[in-house]
Amino acid sequence: RFTALPDIRRNDEIGQLSDSFRRMVRKLEENDRARKAFISDVSHDLQSPLLNIKGYAELLGKAELPDGQRKEYSAIIRDEALRLSDLARQLLLLTSLDQITDLPEFEPMNLSVQLREVIRKYRWAFESKGISISMELDDASCPGDRELLEKVWENLLSNAVKYTPDGGEVAVRLEAAPESVILIVEDNGPGIAPDDRERVFDRFFRADEARSREGGTGLGLSIVKEVVTLHGGTVRAEEGPNGGARFTLTLPCS
Ligand code: ADP
């Protein structure tokens, strides 16, 4: 840490120079802290699935197991491997977002068509939990990055499936305004506590222990926020119907 910086308090140019130097150093220290926290979170999130895979693989290798148990252990190994592969994919995407310095070239995107395709892709997941999904999609065309926006819809919809209990309801609305579009994804699941509604967009934040058992990386919404910001838009979490979650996303669309 740069704690030994001389404390120069002057109103002249040297004072200004010293102030801006201090601000710069503080920023560097913040970045350094964030980088260390990120590495420690990643290491932690890599370790627990790897240990589970190792442990269950050893059990499978050693004992004469009844069929049921063998299937159960294999399923755990498969789920943990999937968790690792999700984590790797999301980390790669976040790293590539961190490296963007210039605004990417955006192409005109028909958002309602793209959303409909993603919803179609996830229909099986909704059906397997008996969750009904309703959609009201205005026709809207906005400049955007196809792959990144697809990730945004996927992350919001997969969370809606993951956190809404069996038999629940999810609604997706796309509203075209004069110079923007508003996307709302809401569900009637457990919702997000008021204190967590901003923090859910932080990297690795997961609301409470009970829900962490659902599997997940805590990176999906941070990707949503970074992609939306890159497009000049905003996203917020609120209370949805019957205390569920509502995500409202606005994208400029001139
Ligand atoms: P993940 O789902 O992998 O944990 P996310 O970044 O997508 O990570 O979400 C962060 C946290 O926000 C989740 O762990 C969960 O606590 C909360 N969350 C996200 N979507 C919902 C939702 N639809 N309903 C309730 N909680 C949600």
List descriptors.
single chain; 6 helices; globular; alpha+beta; binds adenosine-5'-diphosphate; two-stranded antiparallel ribbon; 254 residues; five-stranded mixed beta sheet
User: How many H/I helical runs?
Assistant: 6
Strand order of the largest sheet: 2-4-5-7-6
Oligomer: single chain
* % residues in beta strands: 15-25%
Task: Tell me the radius of gyration.
Answer: 22 Å
Distinct small molecules: adenosine-5'-diphosphate
Using the alpha-carbon principal axes, give the shape. Answer: globular
Mean pLDDT: 90
Main β-sheet description: 5 strands, mixed
Q: For the terminal residues, how far apart are their CA atoms?
A: 46 Å
- What is the number of strand segments? 7
Structural class: alpha+beta
Uncertain runs: none
Q: What share of the residues lie within helices?
A: 40-55%
- Reading the helices and strands in chain order gives HHEHEEHEEHHEE
